[in-house]
């Protein structure tokens, strides 16, 4: 029985380590998401200013029609870059959701391990208690036999 308790404690310790790891991975995923969102926010602010400067540049001078398409291309590239950053935010959120799910599953497993170990310890303690009671009864019976034996020897 002691071996079973030892095994359950070992499983519980492993589950606890796994839970700690999952919590760390979740924290990293949340940090990554935050970083990507800040990157997107900063890029949007910069992109808007850049577009305004491009439009301002267009307004200030006469630009041939061919060059306008270059400006349109620049703006298109900026918006494409913003889309790529949005994709990174989405990827970071997906990673965070997966990390959250893994943490939750790990937490459930850990509590299951704790519950199993506790049950085994309770059973183990109960069995030990029963063994002690049985030993006490056995000793009481032996003492009683000795006392009865002496009474019988005295009466003879």
List the helices and strands and how they pair.
Layout: H1 2-60, H2 65-155
Mean pLDDT: 91
Unreliable residue stretches? none
Q: How do the helices and strands follow one another from N- to C-terminus?
A: HH
Q: Architecture, according to CATH?
A: Orthogonal Bundle
Separation, N- and C-terminal Cα atoms: 49 Å
CATH fold group:
Helix Hairpins
Q: Major sheet, described briefly? A: none
Classification by helices and strands: mainly alpha
Number of separate helices: 2
Principal-axis shape: rod-shaped
Q: What is the CA-based Rg, rounded?
A: 38 Å
Question: What is the domain tally?
Answer: 1
Share of helical residues = over 70%
Structure description:
The chain has 156 residues and is mainly α. It has one domain: Helix Hairpins (Orthogonal Bundle), CATH 1.10.287. Helices cover 96% and strands 0% of the residues. Helix 1 (2-60) runs antiparallel to helix 2. The two termini are 49 Å apart. 11% of the residues are buried. The mean pLDDT is 91.
Sum up the structure in keywords.
2 helices, Helix Hairpins, 156 residues, mainly alpha, rod-shaped
Short description:
With 156 residues, the protein is mainly α. The chain has helices at residues 2-60, 65-155. Helix 1 runs antiparallel to helix 2 (65-155).
């Amino acid at each position: 029985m002691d071996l079973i308790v030892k095994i359950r404690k070992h499983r519980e310790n492993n589950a606890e380590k796994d839970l700690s790891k999952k919590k760390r991975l979740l924290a990293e995923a949340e940090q990554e998401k935050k970083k990507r969102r800040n990157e997107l926010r900063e890029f949007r602010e910069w992109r808007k200013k850049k577009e305004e400067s491009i439009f301002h540049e267009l307004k200030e001078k006469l630009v041939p029609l061919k060059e306008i398409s270059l400006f349109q291309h620049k703006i298109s590239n900026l918006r494409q870059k913003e889309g790529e950053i949005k994709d990174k935010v989405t990827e970071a959120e997906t990673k965070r959701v997966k990390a959250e799910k893994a943490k939750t599953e790990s937490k459930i497993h850990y509590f299951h391990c704790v519950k199993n170990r506790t049950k085994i310890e309770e059973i183990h303690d109960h069995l030990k208690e029963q063994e002690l009671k049985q030993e006490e009864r056995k000793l009481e019976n032996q003492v009683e036999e000795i006392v009865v034996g002496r009474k019988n020897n005295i009466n003879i």
